[in-house]
Write a structure and sequence with these properties.
With about 550 residues, the protein is α/β, with parallel strands linked by helices. The protein contains 17 helices and seven strands.
Length: about 550
């Protein structure tokens, strides 16, 4: 309700009525504002609670029995995302994307936006908004002269205001028509025609970029083929799922020589990280028992070489292997030719690899993972707030403080620092552990954590005698995270052979990513070149050796 001062009545009774009406209207607005403020406060409290809960769960996410924890984290993250979108929808304040520093990871920190980062190689389009040739006020000529530019530079100004708008070019299909012109010789009447260029899949119309997109979408972005079929259909290409299945299989066959070379190169290293994770697989022998009982649990093993923490010369890489169960025979087969050091958790299947051979030395030296040991203490401290567990965490934290300072240095420099700084602390930790075992119940989880470390004291101390050995097995644990991400999109692999294909695809894709490559660009180029590449120079196409050809050479090869 609003009234002009000229229209206000002179009757006091009418004025009182109008004042009462305005007060009622203001009270209603105030109540609505209070209700909205209360809703926003409730949303904010829920956001902070979810952030705190997720942060706590993420610390537990990599334990031996973390499947339920991972699922809870996924559900909370989805709930948090939906809530943040709802809050942003009601936020009427101007959006600010000018912050270049990363957002705080503190659970209680307010939501802060960071300006999107765009690579210099990203396509840029310039759109100029010219005010024209005439002044809108007086009609005079408008121009930017060199003298005016000098004057603006003198006063710190420029001849234009430039802002950026980040947009996306919609993906689209492209049909490449390959016309092989036929010509005849006027002298000898011979027919002359260029040979047909090789294709990634002989006889198929799938181009290398399309195949790379399908492979990366399925095995790295975890987008099932039936969803890709729907996406391609929206783009005007009806590619049957059966065709996509055939393309994936034949493309993997084309890449097999490279995958085998990566496998041999990585597993032949003298220092490996190893870890495994469960994967559900359809068991066709049980399909008559229903979906729940027609699924078995297999394992995916990851073997990683990563010498970057000690500035080694060998490039990083990861090999994935599938096994239908958790029996030790699979690990013994995977590492049959391995020699040197194996950094892994306490899985019993590795034990035979550490046993002395006929000459008295083991085939593989065991390097234990301090992150696993720390995790056991953290679990106990979280549930009991034990002071002993808290001290154990603090002591192990000192080891990691030293490790952060020397990360990336040469092995010799690392070893010197470890002997000087870490060795006394590690020895003191084990002496302290033995004392604590005499004070606590022998069957408690805390006692088990202490005994786990003391029984592998040599393995936990190996990083003090070899500067190449890491403090933990995090490279292998990181390598298995894509499997956990994939489980958000698929419940199980279709069969043992499907899980084996997944492992082989991840070998080449994750190795490319470890070497800083865009896996889609890498696979597209390799699929385009591999059939015409000399077999004795195939190593040039390995991720750590790969170089793109100049465009002219690529176009000539096509």
């Amino acid at each position: 309700m609003s009234h002009s001062a000229k229209k206000l009545p002179n009757d006091p009774a009418e004025l009182k009525a109008m004042i009462a009406a305005l007060q009622a209207e203001n009270a209603q607005i105030a109540a609505e504002n209070a209700k909205m403020s209360a809703t926003l406060r409730a949303h904010d409290q829920l956001v902070q609670a979810l952030r705190l809960r997720i942060a706590k769960l993420q610390k537990l996410a990599f334990g031996k029995s973390s499947e339920k924890v991972e699922r809870e984290i996924e559900q909370l993250e989805l709930a948090l995302e939906d809530l943040l979108v709802a809050v942003a929808e009601k936020d009427e304040s101007p959006i600010d994307e000018g912050l270049d520093e990363p957002a705080s990871e503190e659970a209680s920190a307010p939501v802060r936006r960071r300006r999107p980062r765009v690579s210099d190689a990203t396509l840029r389009e310039r759109r100029e908004l010219d005010p024209g040739a005439c002044c809108p006020d007086c009609g005079g000529d408008l121009r930017v002269t060199p003298e005016a530019c000098d004057l603006m530079r003198t006063y710190g100004a420029t001849g234009e205001d430039v802002s950026e708008l980040l947009d996306m070019i919609a993906a689209q299909m492209k049909v490449i028509q390959i016309a092989r012109i036929k010509k005849s010789c006027r002298r000898c009447e011979r027919m002359v025609q260029e040979p047909a260029p090789s294709r990634p899949i002989p006889g198929s119309m799938a181009g290398p970029n399309l195949l790379a997109h399908v492979l990366v979408s399925k095995f790295d972005d975890h987008l099932p083929l039936y969803r890709q079929h729907e996406i391609f259909e929206r783009m005007g290409a009806d590619i049957p799922e059966s065709t996509l299945v055939g393309w994936c299989g034949r493309a993997m066959k084309t890449l097999s020589p490279l995958i085998e070379r990566i496998d041999a190169e990585i597993l032949g290293s003298d220092l490996l990280h190893a870890d495994d994770t469960p994967i559900r697989v359809l068991d066709r022998s049980r399909r008559d028992k229903g979906l729940g009982k027609g699924v078995k649990q297999g394992r995916i093993w990851a073997y990683v070489r990563d010498q970057r923490p000690w500035a080694g010369d060998a490039p990083p890489g990861a090999v994935y292997r599938f096994a239908p169960n958790w029996k030790e025979e699979h690990v013994l087969s995977h590492l049959a030719n391995a020699r040197g050091i194996l950094q892994a958790d306490g899985y019993k299947g590795y034990a035979k690899l550490y046993e002395p051979q006929s000459d008295g030395s083991p085939r593989l030296h065991e390097a234990a993972c301090w992150a696993c040991q720390r995790r056991d203490f953290h679990d106990f401290w979280t549930s009991t707030k034990s002071e002993i567990a808290r001290e154990a965490l603090d002591r192990i934290g000192k080891f990691y403080d030293i490790e952060r300072d020397i990360n990336g240095q040469a092995a010799e420099a690392r070893l010197a620092a470890l002997r000087r700084l870490s060795r006394p602390r590690v020895e003191a930790f084990f002496d302290w552990s033995e004392q604590q075992l005499m004070r606590i119940p022998g069957k408690s989880d805390l006692a088990k954590a202490f005994r786990y470390g003391l029984s592998r004291r040599d393995a936990f101390s190996l990083f003090l005698s070899d500067g190449r050995v890491a403090i933990d097995n995090n490279p292998a644990e990181r390598a298995l995270r894509p499997i956990g991400i994939g489980r958000k999109n698929w419940l199980f692999a279709g069969a043992d052979t499907g899980a084996e294909t997944l492992a082989r695809a991840m070998t080449i894709i994750e190795t490319a990513k470890l070497n800083g490559l865009d896996p889609q660009a890498y696979l597209a180029d390799v699929l385009d070149r591999i059939h015409d590449h000399k077999i004795n120079k195939l190593d040039e196409l390995l991720p750590w050796n790969w170089k793109t050809l100049p465009r002219e050479a690529n176009s000539q090869a096509a």
